[in-house]
User: What shape does this take?
Amino acid sequence: MGFISSASLASLMPAAMLLITIEIVIASYKAFASEWTKTLAIGNFIINLLWICLISIFVINPAIIQHAVASFFASIFQKAPEDIYGQVRWIIIGIGLATIVTTAIDAFAGFRKHEKSDPSI
Assistant: This one.
């Protein structure tokens, strides 16, 4: 019994794998770059924007949680499965929003790093 529906996860997996690959390439470039260029800051912004889109799709999808999980937790906490399903949904939304906020902060931090490393600005 998995927590997340495998069909929902499988539909998002190709996009996630592509973003992970691009993220590895950008991270390796960041490691060897002596300073942040405008191109690197824009690339970092675009990859973070794509992550925000993917996380938003993941969080908005109502079929992401398997109903068996809600029934399992309902039996443990002696509540109705509908109550547990709603609470688990809010936890996923909270985690997704926290991830989106930190990703947005990282995207704009890249532009600040570029401004600090570029003496012409």
Notes: Residues 102 and 113 are 16 Å apart (CA to CA). The chain has one domain: 14-117. The chain has four helices and no strands.
